[in-house]
Every structure is written in C-alpha cells, then in structure tokens.
Write a structure and sequence with these properties.
The chain is mainly α and 108 residues long. Helices cover 84% and strands 0% of the residues. The protein is globular, with a radius of gyration of 16 Å. InterPro entries: DUF5658.
Length: 108
Amino acid sequence: MTMTKDRNMLFIQAIILFSILDAFCTHLGISKGWVTEANPIASFVYQKSIVLFYLWKVLMPLFLLLLYPYIRANPLHKRLIQFTTVVYSLLMLYHAGWLLIVWSGPVI
C-alpha cells in the first residue's frame, strides 16, 4: 500500500470519527436547546428517531470504508474523500466553538 492509499484510509478513519463526534455534539446541542440541525435530512432523521440518527451518522461513513477498496484508484474519489475530511474538520471547529461559548458562560 502506498503512502497516498494510507493517507486516504486515514482520511476515511477521520471521517468515521468525526461523524460519531458530530452525532454526539449535535444530539447534545439539540437536547439542551443550544443548536439546531442545519442539514434537513439529518434533522428529519433526528426528529423520527435519535437511535436512527446515530445509526445513520455511523453507518454512512462505514459504508464508505466498505467501498474504499473499489474506489481507491479513482482520483476523483480520492479528492472527494479529502474534501469530506476538510468539511468535517471545519464542522468539528464549529462544534468546539459553540461548546466553548456554552460552557464558558455569558460573554459581557
């Protein structure tokens, strides 16, 4: 396995971790009334069932992991995996920001 393939596998593992953290942070934020779900599909799933929401958030990136052996040679797929990792990284910064604001108390 080359360094690029290893790196893309790390990106997929990061996506899985970020998706789980996103589900947890989103559930925490919604349940406390701190945030709302911006993704209309995720919001619909969350309103139907919190368990289904967690399953969806975990199974979608795991499905990507299962597909990886078949898509890893495609340069477009590699770029999409990298792009998704960047988007999830930004989402983690967003979660960190609102958690910091909520837990640090009111700003004068």
